[in-house]
Amino acid sequence: MDVAEIQSLSLKLLVHKVKQILELLKLSLVSKRPLTKAFLTLIPLNNSTYSVSKLNNGPGNVDYSQNMVSSSTKTEETIALKLIINSINNTVLYAEAANDFVNLLCSFLTFPIGFLFQKNLNLPFSGCIDNVYKSINTIEH
User: For position 45, what pLDDT does the model report?
Assistant: First the structure.
């Protein structure tokens, strides 16, 4: 990466409710970039809990942002993600998460997607889950 590319990166820490993360499952069926669509479209631009600070980090400035989505009830689970985002085209380049998010993603794999792909060939499944299904299907044959 050169200096111009480094300056176009930003780091965001997101805390979302589990029901918002389930949107990721829906997007993974129809989008090639579900992380970008799920998390960058959920961030409110004029949220009062939104704090942004610029830090000098080596050759380029990286924008460190913290976005907190508070839960309305004390019993609702939240999941934290740390994202590195390309500010130029607003895409997620890298995501770092704890075990709870990884467990949630792995639980998506227990969903019988093969049945959906076989029975609903006319549905527009062109997302990253489609790539997983095609890869597994290729290995089996």
Answer: 37
C-beta of residue 43 within 8 angstroms of C-beta of residue 67: yes
Kindly report the pTM of this predicted structure: 0.40
d(CA 108, CA 18): 13
pLDDT in tens, 61-92: 334 344 433 334 445 567 777 877 777 777 77
For the residues 50-64, what does the mean pLDDT come to? 34
pLDDT band at 57 (very low <50, low <70, confident <90, very high): very low
Rounded CA-CA distance 118/106 in Å is 21
117: phi then psi, degrees, rounded to nearest 5: -70, -35
Task: Give which of 134, 72, 128 is closest to 95, Cα–Cα.
Answer: 128
Q: 76 phi and psi, to 5 degrees?
A: -75, 135
Residue pair 116/123 in contact (Cβ under 8 Å)? The answer is yes
Q: Return the structure tokens found at 108.
A: 């998506």
Q: The tokens of 116 are what? A: 């959906």
Q: How far is CA 16 from the centre of its chain?
A: 11
User: Burial code of 96-113, b = ≥16 C-beta within 10 A, e = fewer?
Assistant: ebeeebeebeeeeeeeeb
